[in-house]
Write a structure and sequence with these properties.
Order of helices and strands: EHHHHEEHHHHEEHHH
Number of strands: 5
Structural class: alpha+beta
Helix content: 40-55%
Radius of gyration: 20 Å
Number of helices: 11
Strand order of the largest sheet: 1-2-3-4-5
Shape: globular
Largest sheet: 5 strands, antiparallel
Length: about 260
């Protein structure tokens, strides 16, 4: 059985962003619920809570140390601990969540997660399909994310919430709650299309999706397709359960298509 390869430009860089989006959703909503005022009487309008003031963003070396200190306890996995050794973690986490919500590539902020192995395709009948080995490149990431305890993640991100939201505002979104962007990121993951077999074809030096509908899909949806249906569905289950537990309403703007 013949296989062919090309270098995947986006690779694993999407995946930590997906985890960041889910974790950020957890902390933002939990923080909002914790600080919500008691319900007002029926004949009185509920007072609007004043937005919390942004905190000063420390130098990257200090925020990196703080983030590593809090997140390192989430998993003993060597892979996870290696992720935390990167610098500028605050910007990487927040920018990745925003990128996924806006369907833009976070390749610059998370290029260190690029897979070392190349995308491969194999023959099926008269055409070519993505190989099982291509999807397997993401198995380790999914295993690590699935091993994290939601309650520990919630506690860690609740502690970091003021810093995360302040960094989000500093990106050019002053006064906007982070839960809005996180909801959109989770929605993009949950409603991404899946295929048990992904047909591909050559377009010059690159492989593209054989189905025009998939080729015209957004960058996040395409990356999830490259992860394979099993890994994608595991992440979708995680994102859906987090959204349900937090009461985040995901609108079905993106249709999950399966075959």
């Amino acid at each position: 059985m013949q296989s062919r390869t090309f270098h995947s430009r986006s690779g694993w860089q999407w995946l930590l962003g997906m985890f960041a989006a889910a974790a950020l959703a957890l902390v933002v909503t939990t923080a909002l619920r914790k600080d919500a005022p008691a319900p007002a009487a029926a004949d009185q309008p509920a007072p609007k809570a004043a937005p919390e003031a942004d905190v000063a963003i420390p130098p990257a070396v200090d925020s990196d140390s703080r983030i590593r200190e809090i997140l390192s306890a989430l998993s003993p996995s060597q892979v996870f601990q290696r992720w935390l050794q990167e610098d500028e973690l605050l910007d990487r986490l927040v920018v990745s969540a925003v990128n996924i919500a806006e369907d833009a590539s976070p390749v610059r902020s998370l290029s260190f997660l690029r897979p070392s192995r190349r995308f491969t395709a194999t023959r099926s009948g008269t055409g070519m399909v993505m190989s099982a080995g291509s999807a397997a490149r993401y198995d380790v990431f999914v295993k690590v994310v699935s091993s994290l305890d939601d309650r520990q993640v919630a506690s860690a991100y609740r502690t970091l919430h003021p810093l995360l939201e302040s960094a989000y505002h500093a990106l050019g979104y002053p006064g906007r709650p982070l839960d809005e962007v996180v909801t959109r990121a989770l929605q993009r993951i949950v409603y991404a299309p899946t295929r048990d077999q992904v047909v591909v074809r050559r377009s010059g030096p690159l492989w593209v999706f054989g189905d025009p509908r998939l080729e015209s899909a957004g960058a996040v949806e395409k990356q999830l397709l490259r992860m394979g249906s099993r890994n994608t569905r595991l992440l979708q289950e995680e994102a859906r359960s987090i959204a349900g537990a937090l009461g985040l309403r995901l609108h079905g703007g993106l249709q999950a298509a399966t075959r």
